[in-house]
Predict the structure of Xylosidase.
Amino acid sequence: MAENLKNAATVAGGARNPVLPLEHHIPDGEARVMPDGRLYVYGSYDMLADWYCSDRYRVASTADLREWTVHDVSFQGRDVPWFPDPRGYASSLPADARSGVDEEGMPPPQYASEPLLYAPDAIEHRGEYFLYFCMSDGSEGVAKSTSPFGPFSQPRQLSCTGIDPSVFIDDDGQVYYYWGQLSAKGVRLDHTMTSFDPDEVVDGLLTESTHGFHEGSSVRKIGETYYFVFADGHRGSATCLGYATSDSPLGPFRYRGVIIDNAGCDPETLNNHGSIACVGGQWYVFYHRSSRGSRYFRRLCIEPIQIQADGSIREVPMTSQGVGEPFGAGEYVEGFRACELRGRIRIDVSSAGDERLCGAAEGDQAIFRYVSSSQGFSSISLDVEGSGEIAAYLGGELVGHVSADGHRQTISMEFDRHPAENAELMLRLGRAGDLSIWGWTLGAG
């Protein structure tokens, strides 16, 4: 495997959110620990400025959740021989479900003829790796590889239409396949991993009316309980990852709540899609956050979660630290690591080509979770461009403000009053002007 990893295009990233280098937008992440011990994330690959996903996949992997490898292209839509599918997608759904599909499933006219690849999943079975994918015409398929990161080949069309396929292998070796939008479907796969009996499909495993199900099926088993993670619309847009549980892989499933909500990651965020995985005995939720004042350019993020004694999962907030430690004194924190934005402010590409916080209006807020120092902090130094007023809050307390007009501004504070332990840092914009923020550093107490 070490030899194969030489084919990786990028080795970078880290434990903090977002975990991958900024040029790689991998949303809809299905996280899988494969037989080689590495964790692999299979997701879409955002490349378009005005629509979801692209015509290719790239797989990200890690041995320690800290150093990440983004592998070369693993599969391309142009290699799918049946695209476009003449059966169509929206026509296979009930009339009252088509509006949601038209908005988020079917591409706009400029991409109608493009072989876009939407959210995938992959799994190992008897030494082979199976990639399950869906396309912008609503068709679904499976391709194979001898490597967890591809390339995947020999695509075969499945006898279903929809989006967001997911696969699960139970303890007895039986394989299950899930897919759908607004109503989740599930079925047993046969021994080939590439087909099923259409008469055995169970529809309505989860529904929009009963479970808040929007899309993004993902199934895991913890103990004797089956967990169905999905894009949850209970709070309006499908910005939540919710979950339901059952004692059977084909239900019935009982709605249990929200694991994480990405509302606030960007002014235009609309959806979420992800999974849960256990790495080294610790469970994590894998989700995405959008950027650039858009629904797109979504990035992989990770948070640790806890499975309670009663099987429930407590909701966790988005953080900047991710699976790493809280940010400490002297550590430079880039503006793009803000985990929650309030107002018009967003993470965007500047004229210089880097990414920073920009587009702010008076009253906007950028939140970073978390910072920590038993000795406290004495100052915060801000790298900015343009002019405006910035107030800093630590753990909800105002610690200082500055009228920025240049590249570096420093706010001094009485460090003995601010021994922050796992505290939230918030930057609040007053008069914003053309202000943008590259990053900041907290001074030691």
